[in-house]
Amino acid sequence: KETSTFPKHLEHEYTTHLFIFTDVKGEVADGCVFDIKPHKSTSVMRIVQEKVKMQEIAANGRGWFLGMRSYGEMMVHEVGAHLEENPLIELEKGSLGVWIAGGEGMKVLDVTTPPFDPAMELEVRRGQNDQIPPGFKRVPREFWEKYDELRNPQETN
Question: pTM of this prediction?
């Protein structure tokens, strides 16, 4: 088990707890738990390698998953163990996504096949559509508007 914190300049407040499988599955997959602070998020990441599959689910807390499929469809899911149908999020090459915690924070379980390698993903930042690898969809303005809305909830009276 290993814990790391991402640099503050990324403006994301979460830690990652890595794990490996100790049986045969360890040869083909590994994973982590993202521990996201209240009203914070993971980095927006895009899978860029073939034959990569990530399965992720909110293990506790409440929040949202915001993502895009490789063909451009935007996904917005309320997530959390409190839900009767807490969605399992499956991502593959071309997909991108971000986990956004609600007011109590959130833990997200990730299993990656094959075992994770940093070269599998690229961080996606606002305003960097000119740096998208060939063959990948641009991130539309609507994605960032929804990201801002979920990250900065307005208080209701």
Answer: 0.86
